[in-house]
Amino acid sequence: MESENDQSVEYFKRPHLIWYVLIIPSMTYLGILAYMPDVIPFDYLGPLGMLSKYLYLNHRIVPIVILWMALATHLFEAIYVVKTANSLSINVKCRSRWFVQTLMLGYPSTRLMNKYYASHHKKN
After folding, report:
1. What would the pLDDT profile of 77-124 be if each residue is shown by its tens digit?
2. Cβ(4)–Cβ(103) below 8 Å
3. For residues 23 and 70, what is the distance between their CA atoms, to the nearest angstrom?
4. Is 105 in contact with 23 (CB distance < 8 Å)?
């Protein structure tokens, strides 16, 4: 009996480091703004602090909605990437990496999988 790994492809690619540096801290900041805004030193963050303080004082629901929409979008992108990877016969280990990466980064990871998918179908 053949195992899945006998006919699977090992493909995983990371987006540029800048995406990790931008997206993960931004999502973390958004989560803190949404649920623990008292720990943010608004006055020391310049324009970001001014905007954050304005949202905190006047529109508390906005950061919460943005956070949950972003998390939902990342989750749906991660599921899409795993389904795409599965259709390309990418092995389970790499699909798991794609899922976690896309859950954290969203579009930069999805874009890489879409490029791979497009190049794979051009060959066939």
Report:
1. 999 999 999 999 999 999 999 999 999 999 999 999 999 999 987 665
2. no
3. 11
4. yes
